[in-house]
Amino acid sequence: MANRFEGKVVAVTGSGSGMGREVARMIAAEGGSVVVSDVIETRAKEAADLIQSEGGKAVGLKADVTSQDDMDLLVKTAVDNFGRLDAMHANAGVAEPTFGTTTRLHEVGAAAWDQIMNVNGRGIFLAFRSAVTQLLKQGSGGVLLATTSAAGSFIYPRFPLYAASKFAGNGITKAFAVEYGPQGIRANAMAPFHGMSPNLLMPADAPVLGKSYEEVGGPWDPAGNPGAMPLALPTPPTLRDNANLALFLLSDESRYISGEVIHSVSGATSARVAMNFGSAAAGDVVPEDVRAALDSSDK
Length: 299
What we know:
The chain contains nine helices and seven strands, in the order E-H-E-H-E-H-E-H-E-H-E-H-H-E-H-H.
């Protein structure tokens, strides 16, 4: 466990902040060499410097996941600095700004669609494409991992374009798994619910918080929030809770897992799709008037 990435080289997009940065730090702490990339150059360099100060091996560069040239450069940087590439974590993502949109879907402009789809869909495709080109040259298999979202399975209100792009990311990942499995290359997506970084919805030049929404959102209620996350634990979910799954999927421990979309830090939120129509089970996630109707129907 302590050296799962000894001798491995991993590139992580969008790793200047948030979960990506945490993944890069953890890979380096377990013996891996990491190429940190971010569309904000200072973030990438600062993350790489942080990893080096912690005793890890890392290099940072500016790279835009919507640019094929930049993704090719990311892979080249891994090979030039560390001799090879073993895994690509396509982690970069964007969402509707200011915590979602109130614009009706039919009124959303094509530019907004292009911006989000280019990062969250095209960005995964280009990162994987560049990585696979190198992995096939090496001939020793490899790992592709995408960070998508629970929104790629369940539509989030106010985030329609984000959700559409995450469905696309899941599909791209499965396509790579099928296409390149015969060459020993596996591809999976991790789909977080909770424990993600507020930096996603902040301006690109905002300070890197290094904490999850729940950690910065005020005092944590150890009784939990049944409406949003039924699991009750003494401390809030963290970036590392998600990063732990990323490391498992990037490591040889998951060598026979491919083509899967795995939810992380759900706290059983995904169980909501298995609806129990009794009012007692509905709890505080169903409006009062609907619960009253359910009570009547139970009788």
